[in-house]
Automatic annotation (TrEMBL):
Name used for this protein in its record: Gas vesicle structural protein
Species per Swiss-Prot/TrEMBL record: Streptomyces echinatus
A Pfam family that the UniProt record links to this protein: Gas_vesicle
Subcellular location: Gas vesicle
InterPro entries noted in UniProt: Gas-vesicle_GvpA-like, GvpA, GvpA-like_CS
Amino acid sequence: MTTPSRFPEPYGQGSGANLADILERVLDKGVVIAGDIRINLLDIELLTVKLRLIVASVDKAKEMGIDWWETDPALSSRARRDELTRENAELRERLARLEELALEPGRRTRAPKEAP
C-alpha cells in the first residue's frame, strides 16, 4: 500500500513539462506583461510609469508587426549605415549651399580677421 506524497513532484520528474517545452510555448505564442505604477501624494499624481513587456520569438514579433530593432542604429549595423549615409548626404547638401553663398557676387569669400 502506498501513501500519497504531501509535496508535488518537481518539474521534470513525471510532470511532462520541462524548461525547454515551456520556453518553446512562450516563444511560439508570445507573452505580454503590462502594468502601471502610479505615485500619488494627497490625490496629486506625481509619477506614472507604464511598463510593457513582450516576450516572443523574432518570427512571432514580426508577425505582430514589431520590428523596431531592425531600424535602431544601436542594434542594427544596416540601420547604422543607413543613418550615416543619410547624415553624409545632408552634410554634402549643406556644404554645397554654403559654397554657393560664398561664391555669389558681392559676398565676402573669407571671414574678416579679428583684431588683436
